[in-house]
Amino acid sequence: MTAPTVLRADIQGLRAVAVGAVVLDHTVAWPSGGFLGVDVFFVISGFLITGLLIREAERSGRIDFRAFYVRRVKRILPLAVVVLAATVVAARLTVNAARAGQIGVDALWAAAFGANVRFERAGTDYFQSQGPVSPLQHFWSLSVEEQFYFVWPAVIAVVLVATRRASDRARRLALGGVLGAGVAASFVVAVVVTAANPTSAYFSTATRSWELGAGALLAVMAPTLAGLPGAARTVLCWSGLAGIGASLFLLDDSFPLPGPWALAPVLATAAVIASGTGSTGSSQPWCPLLSNPLAQRLGTLSYALYLWHFPVVILGATLLPDAPWAPAVLIAFSVVLSAASHALIEMPALRSPWPTTGLSPERRRRRWSAWRAEVGPGVRRAGLGVLVGATTLGLAAALLPGESPVAPVLPPAAAAAGAVTPNPSATADAAAEATAGPAVAALQTEIRAALAANSWPALDPSLDSVLDGSREGSDVLRCGEADERRIPQEECTWGAADAESTAVLVGDSTAMHYLDSLVGVATSENSGLRLQNRAMFACPFVAVPIRNDTAGILARCAQHNSETVEFLRQSKPDLVIVTNSYQELTDDDTGAPVTAERWSGGLAEHLGAIPDESKIALLAPPPDEADIVACYTPRSTPANCLTRTQKTWFTRFDSDSTVIEKRTGVVVDPRPMLCASDLCPAFIGTAPVKEDRVHLTTAFAKKIVPAVDELLREAGALPAKKGS
Fold first, then answer.
1. Which of 176, 252, 419, 455 is least buried, going by the fewest C-beta atoms within 10 A?
2. Confidence (pTM)
3. Could you tell me the residue range of the domain that residue 520 belongs to?
4. How far apart are CA 522 and CA 497, in angstroms?
């Protein structure tokens, strides 16, 4: 028989460390391994829940599944539902309709404890998300826990029934053996899947169960720890705390997680818990760092703070986009919400007499009356605290300095003369404007008008329809999946069969979103061009394996590029147009960002296999910075969504240009079609420019057909049109 549950100061302190690390990671991106606080929570949860189940089984001879799941519902659901509902409502007020709709879908998955499945299927990279992050993404860990507890109590029950005639010690040994095998299997799966598909590994219950299982294994072993001397407990506590600290400050998202590196915080957390397991009383003098009043209070609020902080941080960032004091305000608001909801929702729900089925009306009435008397004073105090806290934060927000972005002041359109160069200075852009052809010059006029706008104009298609997908899309985009969908090459070819020039487009999704422009060029009057597409989504035309969580994409991309090189050898087109993403990409061989040298070498390898008679033209991708999905909100202005060319873009453009020029190819800088003075608006004329951070909308790709034609011919990639 084991002792009844005692609130342990060390575990409360561990909760404080875990939630503090997660909140700091999400607000100020520090410490580097702050996200590992979730792993600490997993071990704590596995230990506490398994201990509760074992004690119940040893006390009563069985596990009451109904009572267990009622406790889980009362512990988890009330506050979770409130946070989900509040987030959905807040999203409607703070972000665009399309994004708010997606958040609503996220909430449904989270309410059904399927958030991890939702984000795994969506290919959401926890560390390098290219779109705006869902304010409910953190519910993935709650989903993992509850999925684990859908199964784990039944496993314990089966083992205990199978060993019902054995001693308590023998039954624990049997349970430990089953659990140990499960932990080992899950850890192996974590290591294998992390190497193959990091996103799936991060969110998967199969790759996370070993962490909960480690805590559960510790609960099974609890009686053997009762005799630990104080000196051993001191060593376990401090070594465990050192391990947690090292994990938080030395590990980062470049390490393979959860397998194998989550082992570090998991073992360290287990050591701290073991140091207090089997001791009597709630205090642990060998672990004083975790028992201070602040840590205890933060530990008490840890569940509420974990749930509230992420929606506050993500949605709050839309209201306080660049304010230096924003992290402090968002953390303070999260703490106020957590304290209030702990008193008003979490504790009243836990203490409620529900369910009262089977009781007489009089007994039900007495129980609810006693509950109201117990929680009433705390609710009233919390309500007063909410009023004071909300007033204080409201006054602080009103008094702190802030300003809404306004349209930038631009230099004169002809401030300098010369050609466009891959240089971030506005002078170089002005030089391009001064020498622009008529199509680009017309765009420049519209760009400057867009940059001067202080409010969103009516666009066609509307930004909301672009973002929700109801008005976007193009038939030619299906050619980016030609291999997978078995689309014949003829259906991805445009222009007259007897055209004097043939061109082939290669590259990734950024190339695909130029395709409508290039098809427009090929099918225009007297174009003299026949265009074939060999670009493929998620497949840059470089001999470097680029990490992508799309299932099987690495192998398919390598095969596609090999077949494309052979296609170019056989067909010997007059022109090969290359467009690849300039966003920061991860080299799958090293797990680190692709270096300029590695990228250049990979591009040169593919281009070197193309016949010399084929001219190479680099059509660089659009600069990427502002993501229209995130920056376009009910409160935003066009100035919130301006893009400036980033260092990564210049670095990649320089290296690509060097490779292309060695092949005596030509380089086409698209910025004159997109930017003025290195400021790129989210709309030009009446067309939205991009549908996310980097991909052109179909409407804009079609709008710039004359400008793309003009730039390609001016660069010498295409001959002059007949009759021009």
1. 455
2. 0.85
3. 426-715
4. 11
